[in-house]
Structure formats: structure tokens, C-alpha cells
């Protein structure tokens, strides 16, 4: 029989029972509302949710400010299918496409220039590891917890770009992407 389930101290993993909690290290407070950061996309892909609806999933890694360095913020862009939980799915999808265009524009514009619908491979080749200025907002939940989301992107340093420099959310309180 394999000793895979034996712990490093020789103890039996079965003593854990049906409950286990990793202590410490990952109990981050949300980043404060309207925080400006420089960040890069370090994961990008086209995914499908449990209902089979297709969307883009991005993971941003913060470079500055140093207080949030290496923190991750996740972003979902409903550019293919419409988000069934959105108050106005059509408006949310349009905002997601504008956000994706701004991200692409700040990354060199290869995604739109390809003329193709984004794929995981195309996203990874086009938008990853390109520093951008982002604004992180905080959505407060009914239970008192909060969730961060990306409300705008612009070129690093906030300089004007050839295309719209930022996509900002001004409508209702839901996460728009």
C-alpha cells in the first residue's frame, strides 16, 4: 500500500476527519475603493461557466503601490455571451467589449488587429505582462464583506492613448464585467 496519505511527521491524514482549515496567510482585506495601481495581466483565457456560457477570465497582478504588490484581482469580461445575472445584460456586454478593447489597445492592439474572435491563445499572446494603470473599486456585499473589481484601465502613467484611455463605470452598483 502507498504511503501517499502519510503526513511528514508520520501521522495519519485520516485524523483530519471531514474538516480542515489552512490558517493565516491568505486573509487579505479588500483593496480600498478607487485605488489606482500599475498591474499586469498574468493569466488570461476564454472559459465557460457551469451553464456553458462563454466569457473571458483575466487575473491581474499588482506591481505598484508596494502595499499591494503581487496581490491578485480577478476580472470577468462577458464579451461572448450575456451575463444572466446582470441588470441589463446588453449594456454590460458592451461595457465588457469596451474594456477589452482598452486593455488590448494598451497592450499594442494585436487582439483587435487580428480580426478574429479572442481565444485563450490569442489573449495570452496579446495582453499578458503589459503594465497598465488600473483603478480598483470595492463592491460591498450585504454580509459586510467586500469584493474588488477593475473599474478602469489606461496606459501606464495615465498618458493619453490613441483610443479611449479608460473605460469607467458610472451606472448602477453591480460589477459591470
- Kindly report the CATH topology: OB fold (Dihydrolipoamide Acetyltransferase, E2P)
Named CATH architecture: Beta Barrel
Q: Classify the beta-strand content into a percent band.
A: 25-35%
Q: Give the distance, in angstroms, between the N- and C-terminal Cα atoms.
A: 49 Å
Q: What is the share of helical residues?
A: 10-25%
Keywords:
OB fold (Dihydrolipoamide Acetyltransferase, E2P); 28% strand; single chain; alpha+beta; 177 residues
Describe the structure.
The chain is of the alpha+beta class and 177 residues long. It has a single domain, classed as OB fold (Dihydrolipoamide Acetyltransferase, E2P) (Beta Barrel), CATH 2.40.50. Helix content is 16%, strand content 28%. The chain has helices at 89-106, 110-113, 120-126, and strands spanning 35-48, 54-64, 72-77, 132-140, 146-155. The protein has a five-stranded antiparallel beta sheet with strand order 3-2-1-4-5. Strand 1 and strand 2 (54-64) form a beta hairpin. The longest helix has 18 residues, at 89-106. Mean pLDDT is 85; it is low at 159-173.
Concise overview:
With 177 residues, this protein is α+β, with helices and mostly antiparallel strands. The chain contains 3 helices and 5 strands. The chain has one domain: OB fold (Dihydrolipoamide Acetyltransferase, E2P).
Amino acid at each position: 500500500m502507498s504511503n501517499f496519505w502519510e503526513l511528514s511527521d508520520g501521522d495519519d491524514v485520516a485524523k483530519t476527519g471531514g474538516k480542515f482549515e489552512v490558517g493565516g496567510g491568505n486573509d487579505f482585506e479588500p483593496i480600498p475603493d478607487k485605488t489606482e495601481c500599475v498591474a499586469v495581466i498574468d493569466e488570461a483565457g476564454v472559459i465557460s461557466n457551469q451553464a456553458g456560457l462563454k466569457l473571458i477570465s483575466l487575473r491581474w497582478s499588482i506591481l505598484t503601490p508596494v502595499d499591494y504588490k503581487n496581490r491578485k484581482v480577478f476580472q470577468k469580461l462577458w464579451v461572448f455571451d450575456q451575463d444572466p445575472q446582470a441588470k441589463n445584460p446588453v449594456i454590460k456586454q458592451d461595457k465588457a467589449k469596451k474594456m477589452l478593447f482598452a486593455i488590448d489597445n494598451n497592450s499594442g492592439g494585436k487582439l483587435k488587429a487580428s480580426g478574429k474572435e479572442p481565444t485563450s491563445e490569442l489573449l495570452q499572446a496579446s495582453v499578458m505582462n503589459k503594465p497598465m494603470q488600473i483603478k480598483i473599486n470595492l463592491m460591498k456585499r450585504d454580509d459586510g464583506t467586500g469584493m474588488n473589481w477593475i473599474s478602469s484601465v489606461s496606459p501606464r502613467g495615465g498618458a493619453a492613448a490613441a483610443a479611449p484611455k479608460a473605460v469607467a463605470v458610472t451606472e448602477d452598483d453591480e460589477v459591470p464585467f
